């Protein structure tokens, strides 16, 4: 006990508290056991000492249940084996004592288990809370260092800006001009919306459909999404078209009434930046392609897959390929001279407005291949 007490002032005791407490309890219990073995016929009072050691181990010492169980069984078994091997007293005389100690140990095991389960939960939670607080403190230290570093950088930037006011004014003027250009293009896109409405109106006269407003809404959303991405970009002149495609297709996937959760969409897209002049018409074309795939490629809840690949070739040309393993075009569809508004709009946007190349295959699977030249500044 004195040795353990001396070690309690050292860091190793905190790290090995359970082990040192186990050693102390076993030493205390074995001391009482040795007293009983010296005078086995006059040791009724010593059983109280053994029980107190067990109670201390299971309930009061803070030992985990399995550590306390190890200590308890070492003490009880050492008493039983000591009577048999180290004394001349017949073990049958102490059979009642054996059962008494074994039963007491088992009852205290139950008590220690439930004590740990119900009353030490707060200790565990406090320990976990302490660990979390240490993590938070570490994060705070890291944040403070980052804030200090960022503050120094900002102070340096402020000094640089003060010494270069003319350059800052030029940047502001350039952004103002750029915003004016964006507003001008927004006006042009409103004209595109009007043209789409007129085209849909003519199509509705020829082939009335129930989801006409949904189709118009999807086309307008594809244009609005370009502007949303544009306003979030740093330079207000280009957007990440790969991110745009993912958001657009995700919206179509979960909004179209004829889409199905059984249709999987996979992407293999490089990071591609596009300006407003190319992003709006190309986004409209992608909207029509994906809508046609959901509507006509996988009827009646059919399972399938849509693959969307995009990147730039060695010449810097943007290429975009959309494939689906659904149903091919019906025989009455003329790909070269389509009569439906969707295909007609795709060809008009890619070939006429963007001056790009468009290849449409229907056998064995539907495939759209688009290639655009980069716009020269």
Architecture overview:
- 67% of the residues lie in helices and 11% in strands.
- The chain has 377 residues and is of the alpha+beta class.
- The strands form two sheets. Strands 2-4-5-7-6 form a five-stranded mixed β-sheet, covered by helices on one side. It has a two-stranded antiparallel ribbon with strand order 1-3.
- The mean pLDDT is 76.
Key features of this structure:
377 residues, elongated, two-stranded antiparallel ribbon, 7 strands, single chain
Please outline what is shown here.
The protein has helices spanning 2-7, 11-15, 17-38, 44-60, 65-86, 95-119, 121-162, 165-206, 212-232, 241-255, 276-297, 341-353, and strands spanning 238-240, 263-269, 273-275, 304-312, 318-324, 357-361, 366-372. With 377 residues, it is α+β, with helices and mostly antiparallel strands.
Class inferred from helices and paired strands = alpha+beta
Order of helices and strands: HHHHHHHHHEHEEHEEHEE
Looking at the structure, what is the overall shape? elongated
The major beta sheet can be summarized as: 5 strands, mixed
Mean pLDDT: 76
Give the strand content. 5-15%
State the separation between the terminal residues, measured CA to CA: 86 Å
Helicity, as a percent range: 55-70%
- Return Rg in Å: 40 Å
Give the number of helices. Answer: 12
Strand tally, please? 7
Which strand order does the major sheet show? 2-4-5-7-6
Characterize the quaternary organization of these chains: single chain
Point out poorly predicted stretches. Answer: none
């Amino acid at each position: 006990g004195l040795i353990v007490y001396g070690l309690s002032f050292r860091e190793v005791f905190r790290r090995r508290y359970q082990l040192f407490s186990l050693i102390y309890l076993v030493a205390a219990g074995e001391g009482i056991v040795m007293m009983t073995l010296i005078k086995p016929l006059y040791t009724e009072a010593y059983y109280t000492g053994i029980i107190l050691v067990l109670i201390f181990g299971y309930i009061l010492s803070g030992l985990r249940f399995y550590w306390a169980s190890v200590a308890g069984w070492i003490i009880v078994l050492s008493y039983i084996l000591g009577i048999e091997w180290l004394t001349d007293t017949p073990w049958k005389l102490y059979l009642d004592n054996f059962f008494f100690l074994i039963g007491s140990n088992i009852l205290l095991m139950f008590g220690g288990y439930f004590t740990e389960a119900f009353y030490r939960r707060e200790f565990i939670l406090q320990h976990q809370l302490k660990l979390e607080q240490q993590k938070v403190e570490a994060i705070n230290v890291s944040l403070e260092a980052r804030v200090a570093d960022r503050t120094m950088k900002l102070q340096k930037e402020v000094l640089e800006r003060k010494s270069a006011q003319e350059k800052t004014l030029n940047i502001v003027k350039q952004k103002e001009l750029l915003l004016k250009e964006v507003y001008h293009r927004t006006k042009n896109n409103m004209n595109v919306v009007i043209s789409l409405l007129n085209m849909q109106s003519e199509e509705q006269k020829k082939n009335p459909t129930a989801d006409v407003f949904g189709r118009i809404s999807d086309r307008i959303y594809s244009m609005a999404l370009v502007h949303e991405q544009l306003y979030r970009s740093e330079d207000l002149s280009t957007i990440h078209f790969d991110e745009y495609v993912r958001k657009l297709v995700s919206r179509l996937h979960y909004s179209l009434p004829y889409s199905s959760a059984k249709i999987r969409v996979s992407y293999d897209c490089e990071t591609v930046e596009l300006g407003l002049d190319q992003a709006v018409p190309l986004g409209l074309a992608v909207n029509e392609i994906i809508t046609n795939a959901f509507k006509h490629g996988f009827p009646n809840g059919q399972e399938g897959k849509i693959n969307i690949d995009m990147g730039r070739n060695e010449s810097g040309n943007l290429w975009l390929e959309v494939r689906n393993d659904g149903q091919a075009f019906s025989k009455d569809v003329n790909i070269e001279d389509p009569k439906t508004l969707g295909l007609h709009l795709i060809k008009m946007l890619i070939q006429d407005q963007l001056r790009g190349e468009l290849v449409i295959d229907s056998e064995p699977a539907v495939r759209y291949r688009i290639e655009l030249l980069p716009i020269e500044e």
